[in-house]
Amino acid sequence: MAWLSRTLSSSIGKKAVMAASGAILAFFVLIHALGNSFSYQGREALLNYAGHLHALGPLVPVLELLLAAVFLVHIGTGLLLFLENRAARPCRYEVHRCPSATSLAARTMPYSGLLLLLFLVFHLLRFRLAPPDLPLPDLLRATLAQPANAVLYLAGVATLALHANHGLWSIWQTLGIDHPKLSPWLKSGAMGFSLALAVLLGLIPILCLLNPNFLR
User: Fold this and answer.
1) Tally of CB atoms within 10 A around 174
2) Helix-strand-coil percent breakdown of the chain, rounded to 5?
3) Tens digit of each residue's pLDDT (9 = 90 or more) over 145-169
4) pTM of the entire structure?
5) Are 170 and 112 in contact (CB under 8 A)?
6) Which among 20, 48, 100, 132 counts the fewest CB atoms within 10 Å?
7) Where does residue 189 rank: exposed (0-12), middle (13-18), buried (19+ CB within 10 A)?
8) Is the pLDDT of residue 40 over 90?
């Protein structure tokens, strides 16, 4: 495990771990969003999707544990980088006189990450840990037809999209893919991915709130 210790002791190593774990999480979120998009095809389509997930049996908790481990690694590494950056900042308290070389999106990544952690807790409590006897379409409607829950969910989705947008761009930079000809395409790809997440996930609470026949 000496290689792991050496990797985590360097800033470059931590950024590589952040990039790898972030890519895994982005892939999961995309699959999750595509799965949830079955709700747009109607109640039966969403029930069939949920049935296929339950058919995986014991594989589901195993995958959830692996995903939780990746998530904890991502959070822990991000926290270490955040604390290191704060300690190395030469004019930490002279905010207005110390120009920053990083963008606003980069500086707020730790805070959007914290908001996403709170959103994940909300999501798990409302859906993953909900009573198992309630079908998924009914659970979605019962939860997201409440205005407060819908607003919280939309805020979480917006935060996720913003975090993913800058996170994907950071992955390209960590991999050294930062060329004048490629950068505009990579930025557009990150933006397209984030917008796709926002639409796929954000329309569900809107329809639950405004369309009485959605998932009936």
Assistant:
1) 18
2) 80, 0, 20
3) 999 999 999 999 999 999 998 888 8
4) 0.84
5) no
6) 132
7) middle
8) yes
- Rounded to whole angstroms, the Cα distance separating 145 from 15 reads 40
Identify whether the C-beta of residue 113 lies closer than 8 Å to the C-beta of residue 71.
no
* Per-residue H/E/C for 194-205: HHHHHHHHHHHH
Which phi and psi angles does 129 have, rounded to 5°? -100, 15
Torsion angle defined by CA atoms of residues 150, 142, 136 and 44, in that order, rounded to the nearest 10 degrees: -100
43-95, pLDDT tens digit by residue? 999 999 989 988 888 898 899 999 999 999 999 888 888 888 777 765 544 44
How far apart, in Å, do the first and last CA atoms of the chain sit? 53
pLDDT band of residue 98 (cuts 50, 70, 90) is very low
pLDDT at 108 over 80: no
Both tokens of 117, joined, read: 């952690």
Side chain identity at residue 106, one-letter code: A
What is the Cα–Cα distance from 176 to 173, expressed in whole angstroms? 5
Which pair of tokens denotes residue 206? 């809107």
Closest CA to 164 of 119, 194, 195, 201: 194
Q: How far, in Å, CA of 42 to CA of 21, rounded?
A: 33
